[in-house]
């Protein structure tokens, strides 16, 4: 065995397991891809295995992959896409970078491997061309419109009608109609632009994003008996949608998270606040007998 300290060996064992685990993750993800994407993932998988073998020369131990971690990232890729899963995994490499620095004086290869992890693999990841990422603009359109329009509409309905199921039905009808309208508008928009996006797929992504948001916002009115509590729940759901999608876009597009979150939150809740007032005025000056 090459002469290394006990603490360094422990660090290498952790790095070795991490490298072999990521080797299996990239290799399994590559099976879900084709063409250039598959080649990129297989190249990264090969690099990870080579790194693990480098550490094995020092530890003289065969590390086993962390199968729970492998399963976690496979599920993440299935739900949110391969690019999202990989970039989340790479964001967790900060501790590995610190480990490389701690052993670089004792292990000459550590600095080179750290450089590959930081530069080469990130460059390869940027080469990924995942179809669903092309339609982020369509998804943002669907989410933004659903959040702004429906949260405002539900707020107005709540204070104008004050009956939970009535508000829920009105919101559901409004949401479904708007989903179809937005999908059709996106289809016509993409068709007229003659861009790289497929008009029908763009319409489907927009419609799905809109419909998911509609479901989350309207559902509380059919669950909670108190109409005002249902409104608070719906607004909380709206914030969760904004929070998740802002984070998703920040990860896959490498853009700042907080500005996007703040902008979408202010717009959606600002419109809802205005609609509160409109609903109160409508109920006071235009009496409705329910």
UniProtKB/TrEMBL annotation:
Keyword Magnesium part of the UniProt annotation: no
Annotated compartments: Endomembrane system
Family matches, as InterPro entries: Ccc1_fam (IPR008217), Ferritin-like_SF (IPR009078), Ferritin_CCC1_N (IPR039376)
GO molecular function, one term: manganese ion transmembrane transporter activity
TM segment ranges: 70-89, 135-160, 166-188, 200-224, 230-249, 261-282
GO cellular component: endomembrane system
Keyword Aminoacyl-tRNA synthetase recorded: no
Example GO BP: intracellular manganese ion homeostasis
Membrane topology: Multi-pass membrane protein
The entry's keywords: Membrane, Transmembrane, Transmembrane helix
Principal subcellular localisation of the protein: membrane
Name recorded for this polypeptide: Rubrerythrin diiron-binding domain-containing protein
